Amino acid sequence: MSDPRGGLSAGAAPRHWIALFVTVCLVALNMRMTITGVGPLLDEIAASQGTTPAALGLLASIPLIAWGLVSPLAHGLATRIGTDAAVAWSLLVLAAGTVWRSLPGPSLNLWLGTCLIGAALAVANVLLPVTIRRDFGTRIPLVMGVYSALLGGAAAISAGLVVPISHLAPAGGEPLGWRIALLSSGLVVPIALVAWGLTHRRGIFAGRGARSSADGSTDAGGADVSAVGPAAAPAAGSASAGSASADDRVGRRIWGDPLAWWIAIYMGMQSWNFYVFATWLAPIELSRSVPPVVAGLDVMLFHVCGVLGSLAAPFLARTRLRAILPIVPPLLCIAGALGIVLLPGVVPALWLALAGFSCGSALSISLTLMAQRAASHAASSALSGMAQSVGYLLAGLGPILFGLAHELTGGWLLPLAVVLLASAAGIVAGLAVRGERRVLDRR
Description:
Blueprint: H1 14-36, H2 42-49, H3 57-81, H4 83-101, H5 108-136, H6 140-167, H7 177-184, H8 189-199, H9 201-206, H10 244-253, H11 258-287, H12 292-316, H13 328-342, H14 348-372, H15 377-409, H16 413-432
Helix pairs in contact: 1-5, 1-6, 1-8, 3-4, 3-5, 3-10, 3-15, 4-5, 4-8, 5-14, 5-15, 6-7, 6-12, 6-14, 10-15, 11-12, 11-14, 11-15, 11-16, 12-14, 13-14, 13-16, 14-15, 15-16
Organism: Leucobacter iarius
Keywords: Membrane, Transmembrane, Transmembrane helix
Transmembrane segments: 20-42, 54-74, 86-103, 109-130, 142-165, 177-198, 259-281, 293-316, 323-343, 349-371, 383-406, 412-433
């Protein structure tokens, strides 16, 4: 039974709905903070490790590579222990990785901790859109917009604060340094874990036994997923209770679906450009003698505009732009990138705003596609895992290729081609995902 006012399940009382929404927001705050703080600190980390910022471009790509490798496993993990339990474990591992990365000692701590962070975020990246689809019904676009906006907002906070924290010298002593700055980016993780445990404790402790049909009509969290509206109807009777094998078949079939591949490419190209900017904006500015704190604030501006883009996308989808909306962000990204590299002295804030808005709106569009272009809970989970796996493996190449291009030429013109290439591919994918088709729909 659904709530005609909002499409939520009948069991989701207003007070419980607010608790679920706040919990999703708290988890979202942790999805980018722990990784976007690396870019502004890249020069400082490189100096302490005795290497170059270009060589550390791989450090920024490790989470993306981990997302690409681990994302396909998230669907199977959720099938076996329940979606809610899988998210809880991902938050625990995220906390451990954040601490490990900041430990003094061999540089291996930095790299292995970052790998652990990437693996944890891969699971949460895949399953949070799935839980939003399950719990928020016809409000999916709005909640997804807020969720993606918080991803960008948290990234902005982290990017803007890590450098001042690193330079902070309590009582006139030694500066705190980059280790403490990166550790501070994980301060919200314990709060999110407690909130998730309180609002999803039934699902966490019930595990697989609380799951119902493979289409996800009920899940460990106890929510009535049939409330997602018409999108759920085609698969409502497609599998018997506890049919994990049906989930597995959906997980395999999704890899042969053309629409799923276009969604994955679109996801990959927006992530490619986002992480290039998040990692390399500060080094670009520092190469032009911009003070480190100012460079960090400029990166923060980029992320803030990403928040605005994420919030704007659901509203733009209600206008006449709906038919061409997926291709708008890549076009804006091209304009922003050209301005940042070729016209840095001409209204620099405008170029940062265009780049940030494009990345934020494209992320919101990508996540909404994963939720709305699936006819069942199982298909949504499989599509999210597949699209994020392919997307982040593609995106992981972005910061690496950008750094290599800079190291080869010493300038920023050749690296610009890395962004333009991804934007062009995003336009092609954006054209391909238009319409109302769903994955695994033979029609």
